[in-house]
Every structure is written in structure tokens, then in C-alpha cells.
Known about the structure:
single chain, alpha/beta, Nucleotidyltransferase, domain 5
Amino acid sequence: MSFVIYDLETSGLQPQWNVPLQAAMIHTDAALQPLGELSLRCRLPAHIVPSPGALLTTGIRPEQLEQAPLSTTEMLGIIAKALISWAPATVIGYNTLRFDEEILRHAYFTHLLPPYATQLNGHRRADLLTMVRAVAMLEPGVIAVPLSATGKPSFKLGDVCRANGIALSEDDAHDAMADTRATLALFRRLREIAPTTVATMLSLADKGVPSRMLAGGEVLLL
């Protein structure tokens, strides 16, 4: 099965009131070799007030909100068509299940489009952040996890990438394509250093696998 690696940059954190402003997607084969990519920007809908903090984080300038080539509806349509053409695939990103997926679903729903684009046509979903945490816990020392200023482990994409020799500068972080390429590079690294754990985590993207594990009485690590 192929993979779709993606990232969104948005107008804010709350899915109910915000939309994606930038999207990047890289389609790869099973060996994580790129087959195609998308990099999209859209204009801010008139009824959305962006979060100043989000714009500072992403570096999206006010003029870009007005001059981007696509409307939100057009960008969502392009993403949906790409997901259909790349199916079936495992759709994966960094913290996407908790954030990007929710933003995307709400945006599709409010634009009267099918909201579950990443789960249709044989797609499966996975989250690289969950895999990084699993590898750090199950195979300590295999992946470097830096400490934050408070002395706690930091699993931010940029911090983990830099700690493991993957280039993602502070200036590039929170650009959708830069984050997507860094996510792909980190995914490759994880498959090299912890192949068994990563394969197990990827298998759980198929909901039938944990169902069979539970039915068989196997021990699960939660």
C-alpha cells in the first residue's frame, strides 16, 4: 500500500471556527519514494477571523490571505480529488489525528463536501507522533527525544527532527510543505531504526487488526 504524507496550516486551533489556509501532500510508494505532491494555498473566507497567534506561528502574511490563487472550496476539492486518485493509501502526518484531521473534516462538512475523505476508498489513517512516542517508550535510546526548556521530553516535530539529524529550521517549521517533507524524512528514519514497532503501529491503522487481536485474547499495550 502507498502512503500520503500531509500537513495543514490553519487560521486557528479550534476546528469548529477555522479553516486550512495551506496544504501540502506527498504521495509515496510502499518504500516511501515520492510519486507526486501537492502544495496549495487558499484565500481566507470572508466570515473567518484568523487567530493572530496562528498567523505569527505559520508566517502567513495578511496579503497572502487575500491574494492566494484558490478559494477554500477549490482547495478542498483538489485535496479530495488527489485522495481519490491516490487510493488506497495510508494517510499519515504528525499529530494529524488530533488536529489536521479535525480541521479537514469540519472544513469539508461546512462546505457541503463528504467529510471523511481520508477514510474512504480504502484509505487508512495513522499518526507519526504516536509512532515516535511508541518507539521512544518501547525502544528507549533508539530515537533521540530532546528536552524542552522545562526539562520535559519534547515531541514537537521540529525538535525531534533536529535531535535526529533531520533538517527543519525554526524558520521553515509551520510551512506545510517543509513540515510534510520533514515528516516523510522522520518516517523513513523510524522505519530504519525501529522496523518492528513501526510495522505494528501501521498495522493498527486497519481497524480489523485490533479487533482480531482482542478476539484472540492477545495482550495489548495501550
